[in-house]
Design goal:
CATH architecture of the largest domain: 3-Layer(aba) Sandwich
Low-confidence stretches: none
Structural class: alpha/beta
Number of strands: 10
CATH class of the largest domain: Alpha Beta
Number of helices: 15
Strand order of the largest sheet: 1-2-10-7-8-9
Largest sheet: 6 strands, mixed
Strand content: 15-25%
Distance between the termini: 43 Å
Order of helices and strands: HEHEHEHEHEHEHHEHEHHEHHEHH
Radius of gyration: 20 Å
Length: 340
């Protein structure tokens, strides 16, 4: 069994030998070749499947570090604003640590799977009559006033944990197979910031290509989006907390940021499931949609980051997939149903 991230990378993380560690053995996620996608784009493409983390998203990487630090500092409660995945991860790690956990989510804007996780892990879930950007502003103000640990990606320990995904990619590819480009969805912009930090610490500099949903693309437009709207709920964010760092990652690596439409995102979402056997949540398919729509500046070896599992958002999957076939309980009926 592979140990959790802090144990694996303690020498590269801000934790000492005697520090408390709150872990669910996160990390060590698969890097899977994507032959049909590679054929379509004319390059070697691999998928970093972060949905294989304990709560089904990349957020666990940062949460193990943020919650461990909260315990180290004597916190009794942890809080975040979330579009869903951070809420699920906070709730699980708070439960693991024996801390009170609370999450503020935009009312009616969180996918069913993520809401179920947060509630089952025992977090206090508050549905805010406002969007994510309003929620983040309010939790920052509350944590400045109360002795509660804020574990959104504005917390530097989140970035420290998430950078380990870059370490894993480089370790798996090895020095003889350099990475040319990374394609990644961008919402609050913490993850692209973390990957770039990890790559830089390892002496690597792949081109970083970030992709936002067209209805929530502040980095593309160069200005906040007051009312972001997209089917990709995980990246429905109009004013990213890590705006400057994300732009520095993309410009510093000679990469770029582009937008993809909801239709392009859903096309990539269905393609990955039906052609590559990989079921990710809709927002996460933005990395593949962006690669298909905009390319990666001629890169020969590309990693697309798939940050969350498809079961996070079962409702979108059911709308996008084929229908269930009804069948009478006879051999003839079953044969017709199976053979079409």
């Amino acid at each position: 069994m592979a140990p959790g991230l802090i144990e694996r990378y303690r020498d590269r993380l801000p934790f000492g030998p005697g520090d408390p560690v709150v872990s669910l053995n996160e990390g060590s996620t698969p890097l899977v070749p994507a032959p049909r996608l590679s054929e379509r784009v004319g390059a070697e493409v691999l998928l970093k499947i972060e949905g294989a983390n304990p709560t089904g998203s990349f957020k666990d990487r940062g949460m193990t570090c943020a919650v461990s630090d909260a315990v180290r500092n004597g916190a009794e409660a942890v809080l975040c604003a979330s579009t869903g995945n951070t809420a699920a991860s906070l709730a699980a790690y708070a439960a693991r640590a024996g801390l009170r956990g609370a999450v503020i989510v935009p009312e009616g804007k969180i996918a069913t799977g993520k809401l179920a996780q947060a509630l089952m892990h025992g977090a206090r879930v508050i549905a805010l009559q406002g969007n994510f950007d309003v929620a983040l502003r309010l939790v920052r103000e509350l944590c400045a006033k109360q002795p509660i640990a804020l574990v959104n990606s504005v917390n530097p320990f989140r970035i420290e944990g998430q950078k380990t995904a870059a370490f894993e990619v480089l370790d798996e590819l090895g020095p003889t197979h350099p990475l040319d480009a990374l394609c990644i969805p961008v919402g609050n912009a913490g993850n692209i910031t973390a990957y770039w930090k990890g790559f830089q610490e390892m002496g690597a500099a792949p081109r970083m290509f970030g992709f936002q949903a067209a209805g929530a693309a502040p980095l593309v437009h160069g200005a906040p989006v007051e009312d972001p709207e997209t089917v990709a709920s995980a990246i429905r964010i109009g004013n990213p907390a890590r705006w400057e760092e994300a732009m520095a990652a993309m410009t510093g690596s000679r990469g770029g940021v582009n937008a993809v439409t909801d239709e392009q995102i859903l096309d990539a979402y269905r393609f990955l499931a039906a052609e590559e056997g990989v079921f990710c949540e809709p927002a996460i398919a933005a990395s593949v949609a962006g690669l298909l729509a905009h390319g990666a500046a001629g890169a020969r070896r590309i990693v697309c980051v798939l940050t969350g599992h498809g079961l996070k958002d079962p409702q979108t999957a059911l709308v996008q997939a084929g229908s269930v076939v009804p069948c009478e309980p006879t051999l003839d009926a079953v044969e017709r149903a199976v053979l079409g």
